[in-house]
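Subject: complex prediction, re-run

Hi both,

The earlier run crashed halfway through, so I resubmitted it with identical inputs.
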Amino acid sequence: MRKTLMTAALGAMMAAGPALADLVVVDTSYRTGPYAANGIPFSDGYQDYFTLINERDGGVGGEKIKVIECETGYNTEKGVECYEATKGEGALLYQPLSTGITYQLIPKATSDGISLHTMGYGRTSAKNGAVFKNVFNYPANYWDGASHAITHILNENGGDISGRKIALVYHNSAYGKEPIRTLEELSKKHGFELMLLPVDHPGQEQKSQWLQIRREKPDNVIMWGWGVMNQVAIQEAVNIRFPMDQFIGIWWSGSENDVKSAGAKANGYKALTFHNLGSDYPLYDDMAKYVVEAGKAAGAGDQVGSVLYNRGMYAAMLAVEAMRTAQEIAGTSAINAAQMRDGMEALEITEAKMAGLGLPGFGPEFKVSCENHGGDGMGAVSQWNAEKGEFELITDYYQSDQEVINALVAEDSASYAAENGIEPSCN
Amino acid sequence: MPEQLVFAMEVFLNGLMAGVLYALVALGFVLIYKASGIFNYAQGVMALFAALTLVGIMDGQVPFSHLINAVFGTEIHHFGWHLPALLAIVLTMVVMIALAWLVNHFVFRHLVNQEPIILFMASIGLAYFLEGMGDIMWGADIKKLDVGLPQGINSAIDEITFGIFDYGFFIDNLDIVATGIAALLVVGLVIFAQYTKQGRAMRAVADDHQAALSVGISLNYIWVMVWSLAGFVALVAGIVWGTKSGVQFSLSLIALKALPVLMLGGFTSIPGAIVGGLIIGVGEKLFEFAIGPMIGGATENWFAYVLALIFLVFRPQGLFGEKIIERV
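This time it finished cleanly. Structure:
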């Protein structure tokens, strides 16, 4: 009897062993609700990449990746519930895809020693790793985006935009207000006039803002929107015949979803990006073979290659590379959340590494450090080609105005540290 | 004429047009509230469901295709047709009538004589159910809706006003069409309610369920008819709003725009929904134009409610609502 019990216990331990060693990531997705059209392709790309790594490579360093999906509906309270419900599963990191959820999770995750990766969203000053130990926002953040837009306008105008009028149409929320400070600083530096036009959630009615744009005739419009706000803004811009090539959206206003409802007249609309577009990469052959055709795709497999699918996939790729780095540093494949954090802080993405993954030139090169959790602020501009039905990159990657942004990051993170009694340190 | 006054006139006209769009949503609420005393929380979702169904039928999308494919391993997505808009609208209306019957048969028929809050809670449940059903049936992607409604600046108005004021007014062609549709809808509904047997029966049910039953009016029939009418209004609202922004799940949030209109116009008056919509539309747009820039903008959402509350102070039942007097 005793022998039987011991055998059973040993069997149970063996069965439980690999499960415990799984590399757990949580996909706080939103496949339902008003933002589902954006949440679905991101989540599909995110999960499909992990599936590919499991199916093709047997996981990372021999450890399978376990993805726990938790539906948030893009609701901050539900996002926090998801975090609380899943953190005990051994989660290595969270990528909430919501600035609201990110703000709520920063103190919780820091206290729990679990890392957040808020790629192109969240709290911008989290770039300062000396203050935000567990928050990473590489390869680019909102303030980089604001600077990328202005740099693009500078480049289009021979380096002189003094006297130009630039309007910011933004979602009237913490997310939408993020670029204002940066744009104000850049306005002082370059001498352009900044017009601020907030749009209330959800953004279905923007007549007032676009009538004002029609009256005051800004030379350029920058948009910080999400969801229906983007589609309505682009349609209103078409309606008032605002030149599309002078209209630039942040990367969250630059997916196929945002332009298709406006039809052919949206042609020429520009959007920022911090990764490449389309599916013309060797990795997509493997994605088709091991994931989509094998019936293991997270969704219907109809989003592959779309802007937001690529972004989700890129987020997963960066997570996997951080896992590899963490495994190298820790000397074990079964890493924990603290070791994952160390891996993220030592992450280096090079062109050789991306080419090796089957994604040559897919994103900018960058190196993370304690002082810099946000990468080098590289971004590019894409433009909607309505005839082809796709966004195309029209610039190389270029760096944001580090002089302005680093000063703002230092100021805001110092303020956060003072409010929360944090002693900035990289030791 | 001072430039600011000219701009204010343009804003005023656009406010009227926006008000008509809000009224289109509010009308559906009024119809159901009048006939059954239910504040139909699901009205916004009905507009979404109707628009999703319309696009799905037009484009020949197979309903539940993701579910069917996932269960049976098939790869079916489309029937391969593209139907004319008018036929698709008729078929969508058939679906909305079927929905009205189902809603009455499975939900509200069993809740006769229940407290209003119970009926309201049931409509919340219906909203979530319909939203999920719409998602499973037609998918969550954003769909372009093109039933041939014109969009963009009206060149004639632009040129005429330019000739008069040296500044061309922007009026969206879609808004002009929506105004015409709303006018026809209101006239049609008023004629229906006043001059048809079914309309009079509807009003009788609205006045007193039991008295209506005692003279042989079928409550079930009237309620199915009213929910069908609300479904039709939802379809019209879904078409106009869906043309503006594409058909997507945030369409259900247009109900938020109808609430201040209902508070102001009254929950029981069809003309009240229109007048309320116009006052809210003009009020919020002019406030945003005149005061918005001084206080940081984005005033429209909250100002609509402030305006409605101001009216409520003087007319608690709304401008056209029925005064309810309960004697003990």
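Confidence is low (pLDDT under 50) at residues 10-20 of chain A.

- K.
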